[in-house]
C-alpha cells in the first residue's frame, strides 16, 4: 500500500513516514510541503492513501482534496491537523476524508487510524477483484436463465458448498444462515463486523436467553473449520487435476492463492498438512457476492 504525505511541517512528514514504514503499513512514495506541490506529486505518483495537513500556507488541505477529486484521483484521504473546530472538521469529511489524525503526531493513533484505512482498502480491492472474476466466469460459463430462476438463495449456496466439498460440515449451516440474513436485511455489498454475523447464526439455532457471546464463538469455530476444510479439499483437487473447473473457479476466488499453493505443496510432499490461518471475512464476502450475483441473474 502506498502513501503520499502533504504537510508544511517537515518534522511531521518525517514522523509519519517513520511510523508508516516501521509499522509495515506500507510505503511512503512521495512527500510535499504544500498543497499546490502536493497535488502535482499525488497526480504523478497516484498513491493509495494521501495524508494531508488541514492548514498550509499556500493552499489548505480541503481545497487540495477537492481539486484532486476534480482531476479524477481515486485514492483515500486522511486529514492531519491540530484544529479542533467541529465545523472545519465536518467540512473536511464532506470533502471526502476517511479519517482524522490529530497533531501533535501520536504513534498509537496513527497506527490505529491507518490500520483501519488499510482494512478498508483491502475490502475495496477484494470487492473489485471478486466482481471482475465473477463477471468473467459468468461470461465463459453461462447457465440457462430458466434453470437459474428455479434456484433460490439456499439452493445456490448449497450448490457452491457442495462443489467445495463442505456441504456436510456444521459450519455450512451457519454460513447459509448468515448469507440469507445479509440478502434479506443488509443493504450494502460490504460485510458488517464478523462478530455481528456470528450472532446472527447463533440466534437462528439457539433459544432466547442463551449466552450469545459463547454461542457466537462456537459459530466462529465451526465456520473456521469449514473454511479450512474447503481450502484442503480444493488443494487436493488442484493437486490431482490443476485444470479441474471447480479448482479453477473456487480456489483463486475464495482464497489467497498463496495459501492454496502451500497446502498443495504439503500434500505433494506427503507432509502433515499444516493448520493454516484462513481469511473468514474474505470467504464470506465472496460467498455473499457470488450468491447475490446468481440471484440477480435469475
TrEMBL record:
Claim: Phosphoprotein is one of the keywords in the record: yes
Keyword Membrane in record: no
Residue numbers of 4-aspartylphosphate PTMs: 53
Taxonomy, superkingdom: Bacteria
InterPro entries xrefs: CheY-like_superfamily, Sig_transdc_resp-reg_receiver, ST_Response_Regulator, YcbB
Ranges of residues in domain Response regulatory: 2-118
Keywords: Phosphoprotein
Single GO biological process annotation from the record: phosphorelay signal transduction system
Pfam family of the protein (one): Response_reg
SUPFAM superfamilies: CheY-like (SSF52172)
Protein name: Response regulator
Organism: Paenibacillus cremeus
